[in-house]
Design the sequence.
């Protein structure tokens, strides 16, 4: 099994429940969701002209539209070779759930890693039961019910107050379930959005996610 990978790197998770956690990010190439404010637009398409070798991928140190097919064995080899110490893996994109992630996650868990997926929830999720699912719903594409029910946390991007009505609709689907963790995240560090998030988190007893990595200038 192989996956189109845009980049792999070790950093500190800057968003949501696992904020502050040393993590190895595996960023997959490909996303059909196309949010206008997306900060990883370079991951949207798997264009042949941008395909690079495995060697070039593992030496890549800038974020751009190049990508490479990497099999699971080489993903594990690279993690070992880089001598990364983090034991938490974040599988992100792009939209990682356009691929069946269960094979990759099974092998990562077998090696002792915990796994987290960051998804828009618009695709079926193929992962292990232990996988932590971070659902980040997008306003123009309502998440699947199965994704809403599977989510361990909902990390909701907020630009204006009206966006919160959309979150209410999502939470309505969860009404008979134990609520998962809810995080509000201001889009693009906008101060108005931040204030709406702070105010709402206090009223609702939700949590704030500020994309810490952007404030401290790490990847
Ligand atoms: S789902 Fe994620 S990767 Fe895809 S366009 Fe939206 S923000 Fe970007």
Sequence:
């Amino acid at each position: 099994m192989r996956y189109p990978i845009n980049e792999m790197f070790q950093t500190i998770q800057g968003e949501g429940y696992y904020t502050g956690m040393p993590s190895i990010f595996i960023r997959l190439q490909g996303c059909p969701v196309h949010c206008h404010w997306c900060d990883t637009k370079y991951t949207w398409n798997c264009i042949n002209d941008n395909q690079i070798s495995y060697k070039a991928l593992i030496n890549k140190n800038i974020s751009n539209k190049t990508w490479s097919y990497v099999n699971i064995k080489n993903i594990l080899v690279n993690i070992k070779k880089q001598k990364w110490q983090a034991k938490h893996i974040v599988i992100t994109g792009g939209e990682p759930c356009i691929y069946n992630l269960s094979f990759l996650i099974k092998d990562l868990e077998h090696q002792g890693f915990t796994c987290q997926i960051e998804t828009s929830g618009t695709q079926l999720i193929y992962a292990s039961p232990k996988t932590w699912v971070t659902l980040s719903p997008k306003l123009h594409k309502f998440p699947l019910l199965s994704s809403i029910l599977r989510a361990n946390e909902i990390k909701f991007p907020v630009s204006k107050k009206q966006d919160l009505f959309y979150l209410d609709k999502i939470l309505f689907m969860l009404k008979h379930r134990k609520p998962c963790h809810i995080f509000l995240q201001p889009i693009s560090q906008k101060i108005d959005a931040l204030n709406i998030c702070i105010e709402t988190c206090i009223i609702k007893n939700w949590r704030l996610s500020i994309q810490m990595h952007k404030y401290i200038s790490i990847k």
